[in-house]
Amino acid sequence: MAPIDPHSFTDSTHPLTTHVSLSLYLSFPTSTIHASALLTLSSPFSGTLSLDSRSLSLSSILDPQTLHPLPHSLSPTPDPIRGTEISVVLSGQSQILLIYSTSPAASALQWLSPPQTFSKTHPYVYTQCQAIHARSIFPCQDTPARRIRYDVVMNIPASLSAVMSARHVRRRLPLPEEATHLDSSLCWCAEDRVVEEFVMEQPIPPYLFAFAVGELGFREVGPRTRVYAESADVEVLDAAEVEFAGTEEMIRQGEKLFGEYDWERFDLLVLPPSFPYGGMENPRMVFLTPTVIKGDASGGQVVAHELAHSWTGNLITNVNNEHFWLNEGFTTYAERRIVEVVQGADIATLNMGIGWRGLKDEMERFKDNLECTKLKNNQQGVDPDDVYSQVPYEKGFQFVLRIERQVGRTAFDEFLKKYIATFKFKSIDTDTFLDFLKANIPGIEKEINLELWTEGVGIPEDAYEPVSTIYTKIISLAEEFKQGKMPSEDEVAEWKGQEWELYLENLPKSCEPSQVIALDKRYRLAESKDYEVKVSFLQVAISSKCREYHGEVEKTLKTVGRMKYLRPLFNALAQSGGTEEKQLAKQVFAEARETYHPIAQGVVESILSKYI
Ligand code: BES
Ligand code: ZN
Fold first, then answer.
1. What family is this (predicted)?
2. Cβ contacts of residue 567 below 8 Å, gap of 6+?
3. I want to staple 302 with a disulfide (CB 3.0 to 4.6 A). Which of 279, 380, 389, 404 is the partner?
4. pLDDT at residue number 596
Protein backbone atom coordinates (compact mmCIF):
# COMPACT_ATOMS: atom_id res chain seq x y z
CA MET A 1 0.00 0.00 0.00
CA ALA A 2 1.54 3.25 -1.11
CA PRO A 3 -0.71 6.28 -1.29
CA ILE A 4 0.20 8.70 -4.05
CA ASP A 5 -1.77 11.62 -2.72
CA PRO A 6 -2.40 12.67 0.90
CA HIS A 7 -5.99 13.45 -0.08
CA SER A 8 -6.89 10.17 -1.73
CA PHE A 9 -7.10 6.46 -0.95
CA THR A 10 -5.68 5.70 -4.42
CA ASP A 11 -2.83 3.21 -4.26
CA SER A 12 0.23 3.54 -6.46
CA THR A 13 0.30 -0.19 -7.18
CA HIS A 14 -3.25 -0.25 -8.57
CA PRO A 15 -4.17 0.26 -12.21
CA LEU A 16 -5.59 3.66 -13.01
CA THR A 17 -9.11 4.39 -14.08
CA THR A 18 -8.99 5.55 -17.68
CA HIS A 19 -12.68 5.97 -18.40
CA VAL A 20 -15.90 6.63 -16.52
CA SER A 21 -19.41 6.20 -17.92
CA LEU A 22 -22.00 7.87 -15.79
CA SER A 23 -25.73 7.53 -15.87
CA LEU A 24 -27.25 10.26 -13.73
CA TYR A 25 -30.88 10.78 -12.80
CA LEU A 26 -31.29 14.16 -11.14
CA SER A 27 -34.08 14.36 -8.59
CA PHE A 28 -34.61 17.99 -7.62
CA PRO A 29 -37.33 17.38 -5.01
CA THR A 30 -34.92 15.22 -3.00
CA SER A 31 -31.63 16.97 -3.99
CA THR A 32 -30.32 13.56 -4.95
CA ILE A 33 -28.67 11.97 -7.96
CA HIS A 34 -29.50 8.33 -8.60
CA ALA A 35 -26.55 7.06 -10.50
CA SER A 36 -24.45 4.33 -11.96
CA ALA A 37 -20.75 4.62 -12.69
CA LEU A 38 -18.94 2.21 -14.97
CA LEU A 39 -15.20 2.51 -14.31
CA THR A 40 -12.70 1.12 -16.79
CA LEU A 41 -9.20 0.35 -15.55
CA SER A 42 -6.02 0.58 -17.58
CA SER A 43 -5.51 -3.19 -17.14
CA PRO A 44 -7.29 -6.19 -15.59
CA PHE A 45 -6.67 -6.41 -11.87
CA SER A 46 -6.78 -9.04 -9.19
CA GLY A 47 -6.80 -7.85 -5.61
CA THR A 48 -8.48 -5.16 -3.54
CA LEU A 49 -8.89 -1.88 -5.38
CA SER A 50 -9.31 1.36 -3.41
CA LEU A 51 -11.70 4.10 -4.48
CA ASP A 52 -12.57 7.45 -2.95
CA SER A 53 -16.12 8.37 -2.04
CA ARG A 54 -17.87 10.84 0.20
CA SER A 55 -21.40 10.61 1.57
CA LEU A 56 -22.55 8.27 -1.23
CA SER A 57 -25.22 5.60 -0.60
CA LEU A 58 -23.88 2.57 -2.35
CA SER A 59 -26.47 -0.01 -3.35
CA SER A 60 -24.30 -2.48 -5.28
CA ILE A 61 -21.02 -3.07 -7.03
CA LEU A 62 -21.20 -5.43 -10.00
CA ASP A 63 -19.03 -7.05 -12.59
CA PRO A 64 -20.56 -5.43 -15.69
CA GLN A 65 -19.93 -8.51 -17.85
CA THR A 66 -21.75 -11.01 -15.62
CA LEU A 67 -23.78 -8.62 -13.46
CA HIS A 68 -22.58 -10.63 -10.47
CA PRO A 69 -21.94 -8.66 -7.32
CA LEU A 70 -18.31 -7.95 -6.48
CA PRO A 71 -17.25 -8.35 -2.85
CA HIS A 72 -16.55 -4.98 -1.31
CA SER A 73 -16.35 -3.10 1.95
CA LEU A 74 -16.46 0.50 3.10
CA SER A 75 -14.15 2.03 5.68
CA PRO A 76 -16.17 1.95 8.92
CA THR A 77 -15.95 5.66 9.74
CA PRO A 78 -15.35 8.33 7.13
CA ASP A 79 -12.01 10.10 7.27
CA PRO A 80 -12.83 13.77 7.99
CA ILE A 81 -10.82 14.89 4.96
CA ARG A 82 -10.69 12.00 2.52
CA GLY A 83 -14.15 10.56 3.08
CA THR A 84 -15.00 6.86 2.80
CA GLU A 85 -12.69 4.33 1.22
CA ILE A 86 -14.44 1.76 -0.97
CA SER A 87 -12.45 -1.48 -1.24
CA VAL A 88 -13.58 -3.72 -4.09
CA VAL A 89 -12.22 -7.23 -4.55
CA LEU A 90 -11.46 -7.95 -8.19
CA SER A 91 -10.39 -11.17 -9.79
CA GLY A 92 -9.09 -10.26 -13.18
CA GLN A 93 -11.77 -7.71 -14.16
CA SER A 94 -10.93 -4.42 -15.83
CA GLN A 95 -14.37 -2.88 -15.32
CA ILE A 96 -16.52 -2.15 -12.28
CA LEU A 97 -20.14 -1.03 -12.20
CA LEU A 98 -21.26 0.89 -9.12
CA ILE A 99 -24.91 1.68 -8.40
CA TYR A 100 -25.38 4.42 -5.83
CA SER A 101 -27.00 7.71 -5.01
CA THR A 102 -25.54 10.98 -3.83
CA SER A 103 -26.39 12.69 -0.57
CA PRO A 104 -28.36 15.96 -0.46
CA ALA A 105 -25.33 17.24 1.48
CA ALA A 106 -22.82 16.18 -1.23
CA SER A 107 -19.90 18.58 -0.83
CA ALA A 108 -19.53 19.16 -4.58
CA LEU A 109 -23.16 20.01 -5.25
CA GLN A 110 -25.24 23.04 -4.57
CA TRP A 111 -28.93 22.50 -5.09
CA LEU A 112 -30.91 25.70 -5.41
CA SER A 113 -34.65 25.65 -4.92
CA PRO A 114 -36.68 27.87 -7.29
CA PRO A 115 -36.86 30.80 -4.83
CA GLN A 116 -33.05 30.77 -4.66
CA THR A 117 -32.72 31.31 -8.42
CA PHE A 118 -33.15 34.41 -10.51
CA SER A 119 -36.28 33.13 -12.27
CA LYS A 120 -37.83 31.94 -8.98
CA THR A 121 -39.64 29.34 -11.05
CA HIS A 122 -37.06 26.62 -11.81
CA PRO A 123 -34.53 24.80 -9.65
CA TYR A 124 -30.80 24.78 -10.37
CA VAL A 125 -27.86 22.59 -9.45
CA TYR A 126 -24.16 22.98 -10.07
CA THR A 127 -20.90 21.28 -9.13
CA GLN A 128 -17.59 22.45 -7.72
CA CYS A 129 -15.20 19.51 -7.58
CA GLN A 130 -11.84 21.15 -6.89
CA ALA A 131 -10.07 20.34 -4.67
CA ILE A 132 -11.38 16.94 -3.51
CA HIS A 133 -15.14 16.89 -4.01
CA ALA A 134 -15.62 14.84 -7.21
CA ARG A 135 -15.83 11.79 -4.93
CA SER A 136 -19.14 13.10 -3.55
CA ILE A 137 -20.63 12.77 -7.08
CA PHE A 138 -19.08 9.48 -8.23
CA PRO A 139 -16.72 6.92 -6.72
CA CYS A 140 -13.31 7.39 -8.30
CA GLN A 141 -9.57 7.63 -7.79
CA ASP A 142 -10.00 11.27 -6.89
CA THR A 143 -6.46 12.48 -7.36
CA PRO A 144 -5.02 14.77 -10.03
CA ALA A 145 -2.29 12.17 -10.50
CA ARG A 146 -4.89 10.21 -12.51
CA ARG A 147 -6.68 11.30 -15.69
CA ILE A 148 -9.98 10.05 -16.98
CA ARG A 149 -12.08 10.40 -20.08
CA TYR A 150 -15.80 10.30 -19.45
CA ASP A 151 -19.25 10.14 -20.93
CA VAL A 152 -22.49 11.06 -19.26
CA VAL A 153 -26.16 10.31 -19.82
CA MET A 154 -28.06 12.75 -17.68
CA ASN A 155 -31.79 12.49 -17.07
CA ILE A 156 -33.26 15.87 -16.08
CA PRO A 157 -36.61 17.69 -16.05
CA ALA A 158 -37.57 18.71 -19.60
CA SER A 159 -37.91 22.36 -18.59
CA LEU A 160 -34.17 22.52 -17.80
CA SER A 161 -30.97 22.11 -19.76
CA ALA A 162 -27.49 20.98 -18.82
CA VAL A 163 -23.94 22.11 -19.54
CA MET A 164 -20.76 20.21 -18.72
CA SER A 165 -16.99 20.33 -18.87
CA ALA A 166 -17.43 18.13 -21.92
CA ARG A 167 -18.75 18.07 -25.48
CA HIS A 168 -22.53 18.15 -25.71
CA VAL A 169 -23.64 15.27 -27.90
CA ARG A 170 -27.42 15.56 -27.99
CA ARG A 171 -30.65 16.14 -26.12
CA ARG A 172 -33.21 13.38 -26.61
CA LEU A 173 -36.12 11.52 -25.07
CA PRO A 174 -35.28 9.00 -22.35
CA LEU A 175 -35.41 5.28 -23.19
CA PRO A 176 -37.21 2.91 -20.80
CA GLU A 177 -34.35 0.37 -20.61
CA GLU A 178 -31.84 3.00 -19.53
CA ALA A 179 -33.01 3.07 -15.92
CA THR A 180 -33.40 -0.61 -15.21
CA HIS A 181 -30.24 -0.78 -13.14
CA LEU A 182 -30.98 2.35 -11.13
CA ASP A 183 -33.62 2.75 -8.46
CA SER A 184 -36.73 0.88 -9.67
CA SER A 185 -39.04 3.57 -8.32
CA LEU A 186 -37.67 6.20 -10.72
CA CYS A 187 -39.79 7.47 -13.58
CA TRP A 188 -36.80 7.51 -15.93
CA CYS A 189 -38.92 8.14 -19.02
CA ALA A 190 -41.70 10.21 -17.59
CA GLU A 191 -43.14 12.63 -20.12
CA ASP A 192 -41.61 15.68 -18.54
CA ARG A 193 -38.03 14.36 -18.55
CA VAL A 194 -35.26 14.52 -21.14
CA VAL A 195 -31.79 13.09 -21.46
CA GLU A 196 -28.70 15.14 -22.21
CA GLU A 197 -25.61 13.31 -23.41
CA PHE A 198 -22.02 14.48 -23.09
CA VAL A 199 -18.61 13.09 -23.94
CA MET A 200 -15.23 14.27 -22.70
CA GLU A 201 -12.59 13.01 -25.09
CA GLN A 202 -9.57 14.68 -23.52
CA PRO A 203 -8.34 13.01 -20.33
CA ILE A 204 -8.84 15.22 -17.28
CA PRO A 205 -8.13 14.96 -13.56
CA PRO A 206 -11.38 14.29 -11.66
CA TYR A 207 -11.41 17.75 -10.06
CA LEU A 208 -12.23 19.18 -13.50
CA PHE A 209 -15.46 17.20 -13.80
CA ALA A 210 -18.31 19.72 -13.82
CA PHE A 211 -21.92 20.28 -14.73
CA ALA A 212 -24.72 22.72 -14.15
CA VAL A 213 -28.43 22.20 -14.74
CA GLY A 214 -31.02 24.93 -14.75
CA GLU A 215 -33.16 27.03 -17.02
CA LEU A 216 -30.18 28.17 -19.05
CA GLY A 217 -29.80 30.49 -22.02
CA PHE A 218 -26.75 31.72 -23.90
CA ARG A 219 -25.26 34.38 -26.13
CA GLU A 220 -22.58 33.89 -28.75
CA VAL A 221 -19.54 35.98 -27.91
CA GLY A 222 -16.95 34.50 -30.24
CA PRO A 223 -16.27 31.72 -32.75
CA ARG A 224 -15.59 29.21 -29.96
CA THR A 225 -17.27 30.96 -27.05
CA ARG A 226 -20.78 31.22 -25.77
CA VAL A 227 -21.69 32.73 -22.45
CA TYR A 228 -24.42 30.90 -20.53
CA ALA A 229 -26.53 32.10 -17.62
CA GLU A 230 -30.07 31.66 -16.38
CA SER A 231 -32.21 32.48 -19.40
CA ALA A 232 -34.54 34.65 -17.30
CA ASP A 233 -31.60 36.79 -16.23
CA VAL A 234 -31.52 38.85 -19.39
CA GLU A 235 -29.63 41.61 -17.65
CA VAL A 236 -26.74 39.29 -16.79
CA LEU A 237 -26.75 37.74 -20.27
CA ASP A 238 -26.65 41.19 -21.88
CA ALA A 239 -23.93 42.44 -19.56
CA ALA A 240 -21.88 39.25 -19.92
CA GLU A 241 -22.02 39.54 -23.68
CA VAL A 242 -20.37 42.95 -23.44
CA GLU A 243 -17.99 42.12 -20.57
CA PHE A 244 -16.60 39.04 -22.30
CA ALA A 245 -16.56 40.31 -25.88
CA GLY A 246 -12.75 40.24 -25.85
CA THR A 247 -12.51 36.52 -25.06
CA GLU A 248 -11.49 35.35 -28.54
CA GLU A 249 -8.68 37.87 -28.57
CA MET A 250 -7.47 36.48 -25.25
CA ILE A 251 -7.54 32.91 -26.57
CA ARG A 252 -5.48 33.98 -29.60
CA GLN A 253 -2.95 35.74 -27.38
CA GLY A 254 -2.83 32.67 -25.15
CA GLU A 255 -2.11 30.49 -28.16
CA LYS A 256 0.68 32.81 -29.27
CA LEU A 257 2.29 32.69 -25.85
CA PHE A 258 1.71 29.11 -24.75
CA GLY A 259 0.87 27.02 -27.81
CA GLU A 260 -2.27 25.70 -29.42
CA TYR A 261 -5.57 25.76 -27.49
CA ASP A 262 -6.27 22.06 -27.04
CA TRP A 263 -9.84 22.04 -25.76
CA GLU A 264 -11.75 23.03 -28.88
CA ARG A 265 -14.36 25.25 -27.23
CA PHE A 266 -14.05 27.86 -24.51
CA ASP A 267 -17.55 28.50 -23.19
CA LEU A 268 -18.38 30.47 -20.07
CA LEU A 269 -21.12 29.90 -17.53
CA VAL A 270 -22.14 32.73 -15.22
CA LEU A 271 -23.46 31.08 -12.07
CA PRO A 272 -25.85 32.29 -9.39
CA PRO A 273 -24.28 34.59 -6.76
CA SER A 274 -23.71 31.72 -4.34
CA PHE A 275 -20.90 30.33 -6.52
CA PRO A 276 -18.03 30.07 -4.03
CA TYR A 277 -15.15 31.08 -6.34
CA GLY A 278 -14.38 33.90 -8.75
CA GLY A 279 -13.87 31.40 -11.49
CA MET A 280 -13.24 27.71 -11.99
CA GLU A 281 -11.31 26.45 -14.97
CA ASN A 282 -13.60 23.57 -15.90
CA PRO A 283 -12.36 22.60 -19.36
CA ARG A 284 -14.57 23.73 -22.26
CA MET A 285 -16.96 25.39 -19.78
CA VAL A 286 -15.41 27.84 -17.35
CA PHE A 287 -17.60 28.67 -14.34
CA LEU A 288 -17.74 32.31 -13.21
CA THR A 289 -19.26 34.26 -10.36
CA PRO A 290 -21.68 36.98 -11.49
CA THR A 291 -19.59 39.43 -9.43
CA VAL A 292 -16.98 39.50 -12.20
CA ILE A 293 -19.39 41.41 -14.39
CA LYS A 294 -18.70 45.01 -13.52
CA GLY A 295 -19.53 46.74 -16.76
CA ASP A 296 -15.96 47.85 -17.50
CA ALA A 297 -14.46 44.68 -19.00
CA SER A 298 -12.31 44.21 -15.86
CA GLY A 299 -14.00 40.82 -15.45
CA GLY A 300 -11.68 39.91 -18.29
CA GLN A 301 -8.96 39.37 -15.70
CA VAL A 302 -10.76 36.39 -14.18
CA VAL A 303 -11.47 35.04 -17.67
CA ALA A 304 -7.77 35.48 -18.53
CA HIS A 305 -6.90 33.49 -15.41
CA GLU A 306 -9.30 30.62 -16.12
CA LEU A 307 -8.27 30.62 -19.76
CA ALA A 308 -4.61 30.44 -18.76
CA HIS A 309 -5.43 27.24 -16.85
CA SER A 310 -6.19 25.66 -20.24
CA TRP A 311 -2.41 25.32 -20.47
CA THR A 312 -1.14 25.48 -16.91
CA GLY A 313 -3.28 23.26 -14.69
CA ASN A 314 -5.54 21.56 -17.19
CA LEU A 315 -2.78 20.45 -19.59
CA ILE A 316 0.03 20.25 -17.02
CA THR A 317 -1.50 19.30 -13.71
CA ASN A 318 -0.06 19.21 -10.19
CA VAL A 319 0.31 15.60 -9.12
CA ASN A 320 -1.42 16.43 -5.86
CA ASN A 321 -2.34 19.47 -3.81
CA GLU A 322 1.11 19.72 -2.18
CA HIS A 323 2.30 21.02 -5.55
CA PHE A 324 -0.72 23.28 -6.14
CA TRP A 325 1.62 26.19 -6.89
CA LEU A 326 2.46 24.49 -10.19
CA ASN A 327 -1.18 25.03 -11.17
CA GLU A 328 -1.88 28.45 -9.71
CA GLY A 329 1.54 30.12 -9.75
CA PHE A 330 2.06 29.43 -13.44
CA THR A 331 -1.54 30.35 -14.17
CA THR A 332 -1.22 33.67 -12.36
CA TYR A 333 1.91 34.37 -14.40
CA ALA A 334 0.18 33.33 -17.64
CA GLU A 335 -2.92 35.38 -16.72
CA ARG A 336 -0.81 38.52 -16.30
CA ARG A 337 0.94 37.94 -19.60
CA ILE A 338 -2.45 37.79 -21.33
CA VAL A 339 -3.71 40.84 -19.42
CA GLU A 340 -0.55 42.73 -20.35
CA VAL A 341 -1.27 42.20 -24.05
CA VAL A 342 -5.01 42.85 -24.03
CA GLN A 343 -5.45 45.40 -21.22
CA GLY A 344 -1.99 46.95 -21.11
CA ALA A 345 1.09 46.85 -18.90
CA ASP A 346 -0.33 49.33 -16.37
CA ILE A 347 -3.26 47.10 -15.52
CA ALA A 348 -1.01 44.05 -15.37
CA THR A 349 1.24 45.91 -12.92
CA LEU A 350 -1.72 46.94 -10.78
CA ASN A 351 -2.80 43.31 -10.62
CA MET A 352 0.74 42.37 -9.64
CA GLY A 353 0.64 45.01 -6.92
CA ILE A 354 -2.69 43.74 -5.56
CA GLY A 355 -1.15 40.27 -5.55
CA TRP A 356 1.98 41.50 -3.77
CA ARG A 357 -0.13 43.07 -1.01
CA GLY A 358 -2.16 39.84 -0.78
CA LEU A 359 1.02 37.79 -0.44
CA LYS A 360 2.30 39.96 2.38
CA ASP A 361 -1.03 39.68 4.18
CA GLU A 362 -0.86 35.89 3.88
CA MET A 363 2.60 35.90 5.50
CA GLU A 364 1.01 37.65 8.46
CA ARG A 365 -1.92 35.20 8.51
CA PHE A 366 0.44 32.22 8.51
CA LYS A 367 3.04 33.56 10.91
CA ASP A 368 2.29 30.68 13.27
CA ASN A 369 1.91 28.12 10.50
CA LEU A 370 4.96 28.63 8.34
CA GLU A 371 4.40 25.39 6.42
CA CYS A 372 1.63 27.24 4.54
CA THR A 373 4.11 29.85 3.33
CA LYS A 374 6.09 27.24 1.37
CA LEU A 375 5.39 26.63 -2.29
CA LYS A 376 5.73 22.88 -1.87
CA ASN A 377 4.11 22.00 1.43
CA ASN A 378 3.15 19.01 3.50
CA GLN A 379 -0.61 18.41 3.42
CA GLN A 380 -0.76 15.13 5.29
CA GLY A 381 -3.89 15.41 7.45
CA VAL A 382 -4.65 18.86 6.04
CA ASP A 383 -7.88 19.78 4.28
CA PRO A 384 -6.95 21.73 1.13
CA ASP A 385 -10.01 23.97 1.55
CA ASP A 386 -8.72 25.03 4.98
CA VAL A 387 -5.30 26.13 3.71
CA TYR A 388 -6.47 27.80 0.49
CA SER A 389 -4.49 31.02 0.23
CA GLN A 390 -2.72 33.46 -2.06
CA VAL A 391 0.63 31.77 -1.41
CA PRO A 392 0.55 29.26 -4.31
CA TYR A 393 -0.75 32.03 -6.58
CA GLU A 394 1.43 34.95 -5.66
CA LYS A 395 4.59 33.33 -4.34
CA GLY A 396 4.29 30.92 -7.27
CA PHE A 397 3.91 33.90 -9.61
CA GLN A 398 6.95 35.54 -8.02
CA PHE A 399 9.05 32.41 -8.54
CA VAL A 400 8.08 32.13 -12.21
CA LEU A 401 8.74 35.85 -12.66
CA ARG A 402 12.11 35.46 -10.93
CA ILE A 403 13.12 32.90 -13.55
CA GLU A 404 11.80 35.10 -16.36
CA ARG A 405 13.82 38.05 -15.06
CA GLN A 406 16.91 35.92 -14.83
CA VAL A 407 16.85 34.55 -18.36
CA GLY A 408 14.97 37.33 -20.14
CA ARG A 409 11.57 37.22 -21.80
CA THR A 410 12.54 35.72 -25.12
CA ALA A 411 14.38 32.78 -23.63
CA PHE A 412 11.71 32.32 -20.99
CA ASP A 413 8.86 32.28 -23.52
CA GLU A 414 10.64 29.59 -25.45
CA PHE A 415 11.20 27.61 -22.25
CA LEU A 416 7.53 27.93 -21.29
CA LYS A 417 6.31 26.65 -24.64
CA LYS A 418 8.66 23.69 -24.42
CA TYR A 419 7.61 22.99 -20.83
CA ILE A 420 3.94 22.93 -21.83
CA ALA A 421 4.55 20.81 -24.94
CA THR A 422 6.65 18.33 -22.94
CA PHE A 423 4.24 17.74 -20.06
CA LYS A 424 0.82 18.28 -21.62
CA PHE A 425 -1.82 15.83 -20.36
CA LYS A 426 0.58 14.78 -17.61
CA SER A 427 0.61 15.35 -13.86
CA ILE A 428 3.89 16.47 -12.39
CA ASP A 429 5.49 17.45 -9.09
CA THR A 430 7.85 20.25 -8.12
CA ASP A 431 10.99 18.16 -8.63
CA THR A 432 9.96 17.23 -12.16
CA PHE A 433 9.61 20.92 -12.91
CA LEU A 434 12.96 21.77 -11.31
CA ASP A 435 14.75 18.97 -13.21
CA PHE A 436 13.28 20.21 -16.46
CA LEU A 437 14.26 23.77 -15.59
CA LYS A 438 17.86 22.84 -14.81
CA ALA A 439 18.14 20.69 -17.92
CA ASN A 440 16.84 23.45 -20.18
CA ILE A 441 18.42 26.47 -18.54
CA PRO A 442 21.84 25.14 -17.55
CA GLY A 443 23.35 26.85 -14.54
CA ILE A 444 20.04 28.36 -13.35
CA GLU A 445 20.55 26.81 -9.91
CA LYS A 446 23.66 28.96 -9.50
CA GLU A 447 21.69 32.13 -10.18
CA ILE A 448 18.51 31.39 -8.25
CA ASN A 449 18.23 29.55 -4.97
CA LEU A 450 15.67 27.07 -6.27
CA GLU A 451 15.46 25.17 -3.02
CA LEU A 452 14.81 28.31 -1.01
CA TRP A 453 12.06 29.32 -3.42
CA THR A 454 10.28 25.98 -3.50
CA GLU A 455 10.92 24.67 0.01
CA GLY A 456 11.68 27.73 2.08
CA VAL A 457 9.25 29.75 4.18
CA GLY A 458 8.31 33.40 3.70
CA ILE A 459 9.08 35.65 0.73
CA PRO A 460 12.63 35.34 -0.63
CA GLU A 461 14.59 38.56 -0.80
CA ASP A 462 14.94 38.44 -4.56
CA ALA A 463 11.15 38.61 -5.01
CA TYR A 464 10.03 41.58 -7.02
CA GLU A 465 7.78 44.35 -5.73
CA PRO A 466 6.19 45.79 -8.85
CA VAL A 467 6.98 49.32 -9.91
CA SER A 468 4.99 51.71 -12.04
CA THR A 469 4.07 55.34 -11.65
CA ILE A 470 0.48 54.62 -10.80
CA TYR A 471 1.36 51.78 -8.41
CA THR A 472 3.85 53.86 -6.46
CA LYS A 473 1.46 56.81 -6.35
CA ILE A 474 -1.36 54.72 -4.90
CA ILE A 475 0.89 53.18 -2.25
CA SER A 476 2.08 56.61 -1.14
CA LEU A 477 -1.49 57.96 -1.04
CA ALA A 478 -2.44 55.02 1.19
CA GLU A 479 0.51 55.92 3.44
CA GLU A 480 -0.72 59.52 3.65
CA PHE A 481 -4.12 58.35 4.89
CA LYS A 482 -2.38 57.44 8.16
CA GLN A 483 -1.50 61.10 8.56
CA GLY A 484 -5.11 62.02 8.02
CA LYS A 485 -4.88 62.96 4.33
CA MET A 486 -7.50 61.80 1.90
CA PRO A 487 -6.83 61.50 -1.84
CA SER A 488 -8.22 64.44 -3.80
CA GLU A 489 -10.87 64.24 -6.51
CA ASP A 490 -8.15 64.99 -9.04
CA GLU A 491 -5.93 62.21 -7.78
CA VAL A 492 -8.66 59.60 -8.08
CA ALA A 493 -10.25 60.96 -11.25
CA GLU A 494 -8.91 58.11 -13.38
CA TRP A 495 -9.28 55.37 -10.79
CA LYS A 496 -11.29 52.29 -11.58
CA GLY A 497 -11.85 49.21 -9.44
CA GLN A 498 -8.29 47.93 -9.36
CA GLU A 499 -6.82 51.27 -8.28
CA TRP A 500 -9.33 51.57 -5.44
CA GLU A 501 -8.77 48.00 -4.41
CA LEU A 502 -5.02 48.53 -4.24
CA TYR A 503 -5.50 51.74 -2.28
CA LEU A 504 -7.93 50.25 0.25
CA GLU A 505 -5.89 47.12 0.78
CA ASN A 506 -2.85 49.21 1.62
CA LEU A 507 -4.64 51.22 4.31
CA PRO A 508 -3.79 50.28 7.89
CA LYS A 509 -5.96 47.40 9.14
CA SER A 510 -7.63 49.67 11.64
CA CYS A 511 -8.14 53.40 11.02
CA GLU A 512 -9.68 56.39 12.74
CA PRO A 513 -13.47 55.81 12.29
CA SER A 514 -14.28 59.42 11.38
CA GLN A 515 -11.70 59.28 8.61
CA VAL A 516 -13.12 56.05 7.20
CA ILE A 517 -16.61 57.55 7.16
CA ALA A 518 -15.35 60.73 5.50
CA LEU A 519 -13.61 58.69 2.81
CA ASP A 520 -16.82 56.84 2.07
CA LYS A 521 -18.92 60.03 2.11
CA ARG A 522 -16.72 61.43 -0.57
CA TYR A 523 -16.22 58.38 -2.79
CA ARG A 524 -19.21 56.14 -2.03
CA LEU A 525 -17.13 53.00 -1.62
CA ALA A 526 -19.53 50.95 0.52
CA GLU A 527 -22.09 51.17 -2.28
CA SER A 528 -19.68 50.32 -5.06
CA LYS A 529 -21.05 47.89 -7.64
CA ASP A 530 -17.55 46.46 -7.79
CA TYR A 531 -17.41 43.87 -5.03
CA GLU A 532 -13.61 44.00 -4.80
CA VAL A 533 -13.89 47.67 -3.86
CA LYS A 534 -16.93 47.28 -1.67
CA VAL A 535 -15.50 44.36 0.31
CA SER A 536 -12.05 45.96 0.69
CA PHE A 537 -13.77 49.02 2.09
CA LEU A 538 -16.11 47.10 4.40
CA GLN A 539 -13.14 45.21 5.78
CA VAL A 540 -11.48 48.49 6.79
CA ALA A 541 -14.80 49.73 8.17
CA ILE A 542 -15.30 46.62 10.32
CA SER A 543 -11.75 46.64 11.68
CA SER A 544 -12.09 50.36 12.44
CA LYS A 545 -15.32 49.64 14.35
CA CYS A 546 -17.47 51.83 12.11
CA ARG A 547 -20.68 50.13 13.11
CA GLU A 548 -22.90 52.17 10.80
CA TYR A 549 -21.73 49.82 8.03
CA HIS A 550 -23.01 46.67 9.68
CA GLY A 551 -26.21 46.87 7.62
CA GLU A 552 -24.20 46.94 4.39
CA VAL A 553 -21.97 44.10 5.64
CA GLU A 554 -25.02 41.99 6.39
CA LYS A 555 -26.54 42.74 2.98
CA THR A 556 -23.30 41.79 1.23
CA LEU A 557 -22.94 38.53 3.14
CA LYS A 558 -26.50 37.65 2.28
CA THR A 559 -26.17 38.46 -1.42
CA VAL A 560 -22.94 36.75 -2.48
CA GLY A 561 -21.38 33.43 -1.59
CA ARG A 562 -17.96 34.01 -3.18
CA MET A 563 -15.44 32.94 -0.57
CA LYS A 564 -13.06 35.71 -1.55
CA TYR A 565 -15.60 38.05 0.09
CA LEU A 566 -16.96 35.78 2.83
CA ARG A 567 -13.51 35.02 4.21
CA PRO A 568 -12.28 38.58 4.84
CA LEU A 569 -15.63 39.87 6.05
CA PHE A 570 -16.26 37.00 8.48
CA ASN A 571 -12.61 37.13 9.55
CA ALA A 572 -12.77 40.88 10.17
CA LEU A 573 -15.97 40.48 12.21
CA ALA A 574 -14.65 37.52 14.17
CA GLN A 575 -11.23 39.02 14.87
CA SER A 576 -12.34 42.59 15.61
CA GLY A 577 -12.59 41.83 19.30
CA GLY A 578 -15.99 43.54 19.52
CA THR A 579 -19.04 41.72 20.90
CA GLU A 580 -21.34 43.42 18.42
CA GLU A 581 -19.18 42.28 15.51
CA LYS A 582 -19.04 38.70 16.74
CA GLN A 583 -22.78 38.70 17.29
CA LEU A 584 -23.34 39.98 13.77
CA ALA A 585 -21.11 37.25 12.34
CA LYS A 586 -23.03 34.55 14.17
CA GLN A 587 -26.43 35.93 13.30
CA VAL A 588 -25.68 36.49 9.61
CA PHE A 589 -24.18 33.04 9.22
CA ALA A 590 -27.18 31.42 10.90
CA GLU A 591 -29.47 33.21 8.46
CA ALA A 592 -27.39 32.94 5.30
CA ARG A 593 -25.88 29.48 5.81
CA GLU A 594 -28.42 27.66 3.64
CA THR A 595 -27.74 29.96 0.71
CA TYR A 596 -24.00 29.18 0.72
CA HIS A 597 -22.34 26.36 -1.18
CA PRO A 598 -21.40 23.44 1.13
CA ILE A 599 -17.68 24.26 0.70
CA ALA A 600 -18.27 27.87 1.72
CA GLN A 601 -20.37 26.74 4.68
CA GLY A 602 -17.42 24.67 5.88
CA VAL A 603 -14.97 27.53 5.46
CA VAL A 604 -17.13 30.03 7.37
CA GLU A 605 -17.75 27.46 10.09
CA SER A 606 -14.03 27.00 10.60
CA ILE A 607 -13.46 30.79 10.81
CA LEU A 608 -16.20 31.18 13.39
CA SER A 609 -15.15 28.19 15.46
CA LYS A 610 -11.61 29.54 15.62
CA TYR A 611 -12.48 32.98 16.94
CA ILE A 612 -15.98 32.84 18.39
N1 BES B 1 -8.92 26.78 -9.62
C2 BES B 1 -9.19 28.02 -8.99
C3 BES B 1 -10.32 27.94 -8.02
C4 BES B 1 -10.14 26.90 -6.94
C5 BES B 1 -8.93 26.72 -6.29
C6 BES B 1 -11.20 26.12 -6.57
C7 BES B 1 -8.80 25.75 -5.31
C8 BES B 1 -11.06 25.16 -5.58
C9 BES B 1 -9.86 24.97 -4.95
C10 BES B 1 -9.45 29.13 -9.99
O11 BES B 1 -8.68 29.04 -11.14
C12 BES B 1 -9.06 30.43 -9.34
O13 BES B 1 -7.92 30.57 -9.01
N14 BES B 1 -10.00 31.36 -9.16
C15 BES B 1 -9.76 32.65 -8.59
C16 BES B 1 -9.80 33.70 -9.67
C17 BES B 1 -8.58 34.38 -9.96
C18 BES B 1 -8.66 35.48 -10.96
C19 BES B 1 -7.35 34.30 -9.20
C20 BES B 1 -10.85 32.96 -7.60
O21 BES B 1 -11.81 32.19 -7.51
O22 BES B 1 -10.78 33.96 -6.91
ZN1 ZN C 1 -6.60 29.41 -10.76
1. Belongs to the peptidase M1 family.
2. 603, 607
3. 279
4. 97
